[in-house]
Amino acid sequence: MVQIHSYLGALTAALQSAFGARLAYVGLQGSYLRGEQTENSDIDIMVLINGLTPADMAVYRNIVKQLDDAEHSCGFLCGTEEFAAWNPQEILHLLYSTRDHYGTLSDFVPPYSPVDHRNYVLLSLGNLYHALVHRYVHRGAQRSAEKLSSHAKELFFLLQDIALLRTGNFPENRAALVSSLNEEDRTVYRIVIEDARGAEYDFDAAFAEVFAWCRDRILEFGGKI
């Protein structure tokens, strides 16, 4: 298992050496942030660099290759100028799902509002709705059943954002999320994140539940109910 504090320290020191004052930010995301990492978990790091170029990306790639567990390196590398013009719909999720290590992420974000976050939830719901219907219609029941669990990470993030939208609180990990869910949300969480990983489950009933939940949340956050 990666010692994440040591990893962050080594990475940041190497980035400072390579980029100097151009290094603007380093933050931790993903399962290591939530305390839910396993031996196979990715190491999700967010890095902002002033004036990012493809040559800088190559330098960054070589740096992470020199670190322990390089095969698990993952995350979000971005130029500060691009990030300052980023889609504001994503900003609240990024702020809540990233822990500052070097620099302060909120110093680099574009202006955003609660309306942006609602639109992000609607966009995410629409993407899930489209994927569910497309696979069910065009890939058949068998392949749909096999792929329902592929929406687990997507649903987890979506439920975090729905909780934030409804309550103003962002559940940082799975335990906090589950305890915050209402009955409908908990049913869909169980189906996609738990049941669908098993060898056998009632796919038709499961799909109907997930589809109805997705449809109803679109109507809820689209102001139709």
Report the biggest beta sheet as strand number plus sense, adding barrel if it closes: 4 strands, mixed
The tally of structural domains comes to 2
Number of helices: 10
Sequence of secondary-structure elements: HEHEHEHHEHHHHH
Helix fraction by DSSP (H/I, runs of at least 4): 55-70%
Mean pLDDT: 93
The shape, in one word, is globular
- Widest sheet, order of strands: 3-2-1-4
From the helix content, strand content and strand pairing, which structural class follows? alpha+beta
Number of DSSP-assigned strands: 4
**Percentage of residues in DSSP E strands:** 5-15%
Distance between the termini: 46 Å
What does this protein look like?
The chain starts with a helix and ends with a helix. α1 (4-19) runs antiparallel to α3 and α6 runs antiparallel to α10 (203-221). β2, α3 and β3 (73-79) form a beta-alpha-beta unit. The protein has 225 residues and is an alpha+beta fold. Strands 3-2-1-4 form a 4-stranded mixed beta sheet. The mean pLDDT is 93. The chain is built from 10 helices and 4 strands, in the order αβαβαβααβααααα. It has helices at 4-19, 30-34, 54-66, 80-84, 91-96, 114-147, 152-167, 174-180, 183-194, 203-221, and strands at 23-29, 43-49, 73-79, 99-102. It folds into 2 domains: 4-107, Beta Polymerase, domain 2 (2-Layer Sandwich); 114-221.
Helix-strand layout with pairing:
Blueprint: H1 4-19, E1 23-29, H2 30-34, E2 43-49, H3 54-66, E3 73-79, H4 80-84, H5 91-96, E4 99-102, H6 114-147, H7 152-167, H8 174-180, H9 183-194, H10 203-221
Parallel strand pairs: 2-3
Antiparallel strand pairs: 1-2, 1-4
Helix pairs in contact: 1-3, 6-7, 6-10, 7-9, 9-10
